[in-house]
Design goal:
With about 1100 residues, the chain is α+β, with helices and mostly antiparallel strands. One of its GO terms (molecular function) is GTP binding.
């Protein structure tokens, strides 16, 4: 294949109609990178013989070693096609630029999938023909649906149906039909969910209109119809959009759902084998059989898939009803699959696996294919197979033609995607119309505003940048040998580390740098060697998609902060102005310099160091710019594994901190924080992700030896009603009720602690994003009303303390950004309805939503503070603007009561952030403030406000903890959802490993017609370290798990339970024979945090043990 020069790709960037931006998405090991190799080979970058083996876009040594992709990589490809403008016109050559992004399939790197999908207009979704629809397949299909990408389905690894399962063509057709139904069922579920939401919103609008008309008629009856002006009557009968209520359609308008499904007759399904280098669509076979059958191509391609049969005598297509008892094969089996099976039989079939030479000669003659002589003489049957398919059904042709014909160009895609994306961005009503129009129409004309979305920051060593690379053609022989030596050394080092062997690279380096000469010469050369080692720093390059305008090197653009809104463009923090220092064409392992880039392209942008942390929006203007990075469509796997790091040598601490900041910018799923104790902690998505981060940190970013502590897993604390509870501490007050008195006896607080109903807890976890947004709006309203009073300033300082660690709770909770679109009234109504679902203690929860004063911890958590005092001293959180004004005007509480109420709310935040069992956050707890009494005059309270503040916070926090322990406490474990595909032979070993690690089997399904099972289990995160390696070792590599964070699950055991009744003492004894698993987890966390742990140093002091010699 001829090598395509970069200048040709740069030229094609200017032709917007000929650009296609696609990403390749799939479950892990479904063949994405092998498929990409076949496309790269068309541009002469790699040899076609190595396609599927070299995995060109897996540029990291650990990716090559493990055989999986860990980072999304982009490459630009050239493709030319002969197309007719009319059926009888002469074919014309048209050239296309395909910007392709290969993404990982492992769940630990799902954030890379999110970053890739936002930049593209179409998606190629791969599904393994044997494994079928897996967990990540559903995830990537949902990603394409949310991002409004147009997908193409590739059923890959078709060769496994022939070589492994030994299926006949008819059996394979049945299996493929079921597989296609599974994929379409997933797409149908997304469509159904959206349809139900639209239907619900339509019903709500109808109800609102009906109620508005009814209210208007009631007012007319009271006031008299003649008293109202005519225009006012018309205004009542019309809504805001001018639609007359009486003419509103009474039925919901259904949307067309034909375009969402994968159907081979519509040529959006490709059947392929990436490892053998072939692929086809029904359209290709329709072209082959068009003349032979005398049926037009566009007619035949609609009947090649499905229950259609060919009458060989009449050459007519028959439906199922016209078979008349004849046993005919479907056309797809007869005309397509049997031909594919025949090639495999002729090349790799036969009794000895050498193929059938006579059959192959017949096939090559009928297809008019010339096989090179050296391939015919080859003893490798795979070489013959690849040669036949490469000449007959090349993979690149089928895939790239489908991409060009089925997927939209940037202008068409943005016209359908951008309106919804811009409407979901904050402050969409204040967007500049010029910016909006340019983005929707992908306008690249000079003077149009430039808007780009940076999905992630990619780190590149300085030596890999184009400015430092050799120019003017190929490498010399010496340079090629040196490059090969370096690559082999990298791979050898990675293999040695994986096998636990001692690293010999340091010895090799020492010998290579050894010098013979005087001592002073060696001494003077040593600093130079050290300087050379440190002169390859990392540079961050923005991985971006330009939606409008044209970017040029030297342009000054604004980087919009995460909380930017066009409604307040000059609010703090203000957009940062940066200068673009370089633009790059992304070519997989290398970069090519650009001077300018028009809209619709994927590009690398230099000059954004320090301005963008993970993702962001850059715009050529500040006012009216859209904030694309704050939309909720981008989803990542929650970072749940937390590890403390320290340098092996204390002098390298500054290096490590600098490296951690670089790592946080370069990896979209890493969170770095420094705890109050001084520990440096990173949060990662899983064990494999953590391993990759530590490797990058030591070898690329910090370049020093780093020691990682034991992984820290989050827990939650809660309470439950149980039969075996201790009697209440204060029977006269009731269970969970505590009356706390400050040490000065001047303030009394009565608090009742109750377990929240389970539906309410789930609702609060799901809508944490709505609570955060409502709280921010409330703070903004209070700041506008206030004139700098002392208690507001103090509240702001407390908020700042909370905001420092706000990402901590978000990182632990993958649902932390849900429910953004609910208004105050909608959220309040839904919460009240959820409270009413509780059957127990209905009187307690009847109007609980009205009296909620705060949520916690961090003011957004799944715990509530309910104010039941007579004067409502803590106020109501869920109240409208007019209710706030009425409360302020008619308030009866004293100034000091209000001040102390703030301290109670603050104590509630402290108590819910650190529970009494092991200082972990609470979940599902309601704290009811029943009374707040001051036993002193206003003058005394004013004089002692500082002392009373500390006393009230301490007393309230201790009272909440005592009330918590009055119930039966529970520890909540972070849980992984584990999906494993395993054969029947290793099923027992998989079950043994899951059971030994305290896991629980949820379901087990047989994948027909194979003997493989899909196992779904729940596994505690604390027990998951080393789980994947153990599964692979026990099953000899036949099973590999996928771990997805599922949430927190209560361990149904009281950590402090001890036998008390006569039956328990008789059965279990005083020491309780069985181990208390919950207590084991609690003590493990307490030991890690340095809290007191009750342990018996001596178990059996009266027994003597003599060691045998």
């Amino acid at each position: 294949m001829p090598v395509v020069p970069p200048e040709k790709l740069v030229q094609l960037q200017q032709q917007g109609e000929g650009i296609r931006n696609i990403c390749i998405l799939a479950h892990v090991d479904h063949g994405k990178t092998s498929l990409t190799d076949a496309l790269i080979a068309t541009n002469g970058i790699i040899s076609p013989k190595l396609a599927g083996k070299i995995r060109y876009l897996d540029s990291r040594p650990d990716e090559q070693l493990r055989g999986i992709t860990m980072e999304s990589s982009a490459i630009s490809l050239y493709f030319s096609l002969l197309r007719r403008s009319a059926p009888e016109a002469k074919p014309e050559q048209k050239e296309y630029l395909i910007n392709l992004i290969d993404s990982p399939g492992h769940i630990d790197f799902s954030s890379e999938v999110s970053t890739a999908s936002r930049l593209c207009d179409g998606a190629v979704v791969l599904v393994d023909a044997v494994e079928g629809v897996c967990s990540q397949t559903v995830t990537v299909l949902r990603q394409t649906w949310n991002e409004k990408l147009r997908p193409i389905l590739v059923i890959n690894k078709m060769d496994r149906l022939i070589t492994e399962w030994k299926l006949s063509p008819s059996e394979a057709y049945t299996h493929l039909s079921k597989l296609l139904e599974q994929v379409n069922a997933v797409m149908g579920s997304f469509s159904l969910g959206e349809r139900m939401e639209d239907d619900l919103r339509w019903r709500e609008r109808i109800d609102e209109k009906v109620n508005a008309v009814a209210a208007a008629k009631d007012r007319e009856d009271v006031d008299g119809t003649d008293g109202l002006p005519k225009s006012r009557k018309a205004q009542i009968l019309e809504d805001d959009e001018g639609v007359v209520t009486s003419s509103t359609p009474a039925e919901y308008e259904e949307k067309e759902d034909e375009d969402i499904y994968f159907e081979p007759e519509r040529n959006n399904v490709i059947f392929a084998s990436a490892i053998d280098g072939w692929a086809f669509t029904p359209r290709q076979f329709a072209g082959l059989y068009e003349k032979k059958l005398g049926i037009k191509r566009h007619v035949l391609e609609k009947f090649l898939w499905g229950d259609f049969y060919l009458d060989a005598k009449t050459k007519r297509v028959l439906g199922p009803k016209h078979l008349r008892g004849r046993h005919l094969k479907p056309m797809f089996v007869q005309l397509v699959l049997e031909q594919i099976w025949a090639v495999y039989e002729g090349t790799t079939g036969g009794p000895n696996g050498k193929g059938d030479a006579a059959l192959m000669e017949k096939i090559t003659k009928s297809l008019n294919i010339n096989i090179p002589a050296h391939v015919m003489r080859s003893k490798d049957p795979k070489a013959m197979l690849s040669a036949v398919f490469g000449a007959w059904l090349p993979l690149s042709t089928a895939l790239l033609v489908s991409v060009i014909e089925q997927l939209p160009n940037p202008r068409t895609a943005q016209e359908s995607r951008m309106p919804a994306l811009l409407a979901a961005s904050p402050g969409s009503d204040h967007l500049d119309e010029k910016v909006k129009s340019a983005m929707v129409h992908s306008s690249s004309a000079m003077g149009e505003p430039a808007v780009a979305y940076v999905s992630k920051m990619v780190s590149m060593p300085e030596s890999e940048l184009p400015i430092n690379k050799r120019r003017g053609g190929m490498l010399s022989a010496e340079e090629a040998r040196e490059l090969g030596r370096k690559k082999r050394a990298e791979i050898a080092k990675a293999q040695a580390q994986a096998n636990g062997e001692p690293d010999v690279s340091s010895v090799t380096d020492a010998l290579s740098t050894a010098a013979i000469g005087e001592d002073d010469e060696i001494e003077t050369s040593a600093p130079q060697v050290q300087q050379d080692q440190d002169t390859d720093p990392e540079h961050l390059i923005g991985f971006a998609r330009l939606f409008s305008g044209t970017l040029t090197v030297g342009d000054e653009v604004y980087v919009l902060p995460p909380k930017y809104t066009p409604a307040r463009p000059h609010a703090q923090p203000q957009p940062k102005k940066v200068t673009i220092t370089a633009l790059y064409l992304l070519m997989g392992r290398s970069l090519e310099s650009l001077n300018s880039v028009p809209a619709g392209n994927i590009v690398g942008i230099a000059g954004l160091d320090g301005a963008i942390i993970k993702s962001g929006t850059i715009c050529s203007q500040n006012e009216g710019a859209p904030n694309l990075s704050s939309t909720t469509a981008i989803s990542t796997n929650a970072p749940i594994v937390r590890v403390a790091l320290e340098p092996a040598f204390p002098g390298d601490l500054d290096k490590m901190i600098k490296g951690l900041k670089l790592l946080e910018q370069a990896d979209p799923a890493v969170v770095y924080e420094q705890l109050e104790s001084g520990e440096h902690v990173i949060l990662t998505a899983g064990e494999l992700h953590l391993e990759r981060c530590l490797k990058d940190l030591q070898e690329r970013y910090a370049k020093c030896e780093i020691q990682a502590g034991e992984a820290i897993v989050p827990y939650r604390e809660s309470i439950a009603r149980a039969e075996e509870m201790n009697p209440p501490m204060h029977p006269e007050l009731g269970r969970g009720c505590v009356e706390g008195v400050t040490s000065s006896k001047q303030v009394t607080v009565r608090i009742r602690v109750l377990p929240l109903p389970t539906p309410v807890t789930e609702f609060l976890l799901k809508h944490t994003g709505a609570i955060k947004r409502l709280y921010s709006e409330r703070q903004a309203q209070e700041q506008e009303r206030s004139t700098g009073s002392d208690h507001v300033e103090q509240g702001e300082s407390e908020d700042q303390v909370d905001d420092i660690k706000e990402h901590d709770i978000d990182a632990d909770d993958p649902l932390a950004e849900g429910g953004h679109n609910l208004t105050m009234s909608e959220f309040k109504q839904k919460l009240a309805d959820t409270f009413l679902e509780e059957k127990l203690d209905r009187e307690v929860w009847k109007d609980a939503a009205e009296h909620i004063a705060a949520f916690g911890p961090r003011r957004v958590g799944p715990n509530v503070l309910i104010d039941r005092t007579e004067d409502v001293v803590c106020g109501k959180f869920l109240r409208e603007e007019h209710e706030i004004e009425r409360t302020l005007n008619g308030t009866t509480t004293t100034k000091h009561q209000s001040t102390f109420a703030d301290k109670i709310a603050y104590a509630f935040q402290l108590a819910t952030y650190q529970g009494p069992m092991c200082n972990e956050p609470l979940q599902g707890v309601a704290v009811i403030l029943e009374d707040l009494s001051l036993h002193c005059s206003d003058n005394e309270a004013a004089q002692n406000v500082g002392r009373l503040t500390g006393e009230i916070i301490r007393t309230t926090r201790d009272s909440i903890r005592l009330g918590f322990l009055d119930w039966s406490p529970r520890i909540l474990l972070a849980m992984y959802s584990c999906e494993i595909q395993a054969s029947a032979e290793v099923l027992g070993r998989v079950y043994a490993v899951i059971t030994r690690r305290s896991g629980r089997i949820v379901s087990e399904n047989l994948l027909e017609p194979s003997t493989n099972f899909t196992i779904l289990a729940l596994l505690p995160v604390a027990e998951s370290f080393g789980f994947s390696d153990e599964i692979r070792q026990r099953t000899s590599g036949f099973a590999a798990p996928q771990l997805v964070f599922e949430g927190f699950e209560a361990l149904d055991e009281d950590p402090f339970w001890v036998p008390r009744t006569e039956e328990e003492l008789e059965d279990l004894g005083e020491k309780a024979d069985r181990e208390n698993v919950a207590l084991r987890y609690v003590e493990r966390v307490r030991s890690r945090k340095g809290l007191a742990v009750r342990r018996k140093v001596v178990e059996s002091a009266e027994k003597q043990k003599t060691l045998k010699r």
